[in-house]
Amino acid sequence: MGNRFDVRGMSKTELFSWQSLGLLTAAIVLALGVMSSPPTALTLEGQRTLAVFLSALVLWLTRPVPYVVSSILSVTLLFALGAVDSFGAATTGFTSTLVFFLLLLLLLGDATTSVGLDRQLARRLLSADSTPRRALHSVAGSVLALAFVMPSAMARAVTFIPIVKRLAGGFESDTDGGFESAAFLVLGHVNPIASMALMTGGGMALVTSEIVATSVRPITWVDWAVLMLPPTILLYTLAVVCAGLFALVDEDVTIQTDDTARLETDGDGTTRLTRDQRLVGAVLLGAIVSWIVGSFVGIPTVLPAVAAVVALSIPSVGVITTEDVSEVSWGIVFLIGAMLSILDAMEATGAITAVVDGLTGWVPFAVLAQWQIVAVLILIAICIRILFSTASAAIVVVLPIVLEFASVFAINQLFLALTVLLVVGSTTVLPFNTTAVLVSMDRGPLSHRDVASFGLVTMALSIAVAIVSWLVYWPLVV
Fold this sequence. Notes:
Elements: H1 2-35, H2 44-62, H3 67-80, H4 87-90, H5 97-114, H6 117-125, H7 132-147, H8 153-168, H9 179-190, H10 203-215, H11 221-246, H12 257-265, H13 275-297, H14 302-313, H15 322-326, H16 330-349, H17 351-361, H18 370-386, H19 391-408, H20 413-426, H21 435-443, H22 448-477
């Protein structure tokens, strides 16, 4: 007992030291940004915005204080240090549709769990002879299929997180054969890749197609499907296989008899859906249909989610209650809002432009071969991607610049644009680079090292798929 007490005390001391180091580092970064003179390419406001961004980055990685506290601190510093003109300008990210959409999807995901609908879905995915590898493939296939009807990777992640938890609970208690870790890698890293297959599949595809149509040539929904569907499915499949290898998913572990019985009977001896399960299922189906129709007629994605939450909250239904709202992961919601606010400030102060100019100014493009220029442009896109919490925002900044380089050096602009999309959409080095990864790490067993390591794997796979597509597939269909 004495040894156990010492180990626990040591763990707390180590944790405290790591968090203290994070606080100290964040304070030093902020002080340097405030006290030093900005370089000629950067305004004083831009330097202070970058200082706030870097200090917030340290706080979010080391977590010495809750996400809510560090997020509020970061936007307050933007205003207090004079990086923006008003407190309203420092909090613009919290008015973003993404913040409210994330909150709504978290509520819908919790509703699925609270009524036991996740157990019913798990029962249909899982059988008595299921193994971790087969279960992983079932989850991955279901996520890919749902991507063609649900345009939000975040929605798919939130929908499947409770299902993955339920499936993992069905394996042997001592080990799940690596299933849970691999499944959360799929939900976080691999899941957003599926959104690139269709022009209406998500923000990344929509932003890229709009820039291509404006700067390169018109592109239709069918054109996009022909160009992107095969590469996306190939990349998705390779990433799923690598997720299984990364987490060492076992083929030998099977479902325990007792857990299988509970899954099949839903705990009450019947497989029929309850009233609440039917209501939640119908509302979710209606939201999915609305997302499909809305992608063609221009209905904002957030509206079906709002309607779904309201429908489940009315007194006669009562599925979503005040307690459910209080139990939402508010830290993630505040982190996303703060990150978007900082990005808006970086754009307004010219900090992003200064960073981009600095990166491009270091490279002697004139002496490079064409493939080397493409490689450097992709590397720049990756570096800029790391600065953003959403791939769509990174694409908005980097793609016009990359296409300008392509025009100057006679590089195929269409192929380069699609390559940038594949790589940027598959690169997640930091947890908050992608909201699906952030939520998956918060709800699952993944560490920062897992997120960064597997993010490099998916990035490498996307580069390989882009090379094959550029040299073999795209020339055949264009």
